[in-house]
Write a structure and sequence with these properties.
mainly alpha, globular, 134 residues, 8 helices
């Protein structure tokens, strides 16, 4: 099956993989971090998608194993550190911020604010300061 993406290819790839009822779907590519993040955020618990990055040899990464990392706010983490310009602007490397997220309750609380539709602009501002100034 071949699909052509009109807009965002990552979204098409992930939504197609999730729709498939096959037990395992494999996504192959070198620059797949955006796909991994989307899958981790959207995939139902009973699905398993495997990722293969050819430069890593035959090693695969499983969405089920990645979900066990406990990254409930993966979209927040990726949005905060996913772009090199963001990481550079706030002197936060991806790994350093991930460690902060896992170790500090106030960073996890800030992530909740960003993902809560009922958060006020002031709450979002304070949560942003918490993340940027750590």
């Amino acid at each position: 099956m071949t699909d052509v993406a009109e807009d965002d290819a990552d979204t098409l790839i992930v939504s197609t993989a999730i729709k498939k009822q096959a037990e395992n779907v494999v996504i192959v590519g070198e620059d797949i971090i955006d796909l991994v993040v989307l899958v981790m955020a959207l995939i139902p618990d009973d699905h398993n998608i495997l990722f293969l990055k050819p430069s890593y040899g035959k090693k695969t990464f499983s969405s089920k194993n990645l979900q066990q990392l406990g990254l409930k706010h993966i979209l927040f983490i990726h949005a905060f550190t996913g772009w090199d310009t963001t990481s550079v602007a706030f002197r936060k490397g991806k790994i350093n911020f991930l460690k902060l997220y896992k170790q500090q309750d106030n960073i996890q609380a800030a992530a909740k604010v960003f993902t809560d539709q009922d958060s006020s602009p002031l709450q979002i501002e304070e949560a942003g300061k918490t993340c940027f100034l750590k």
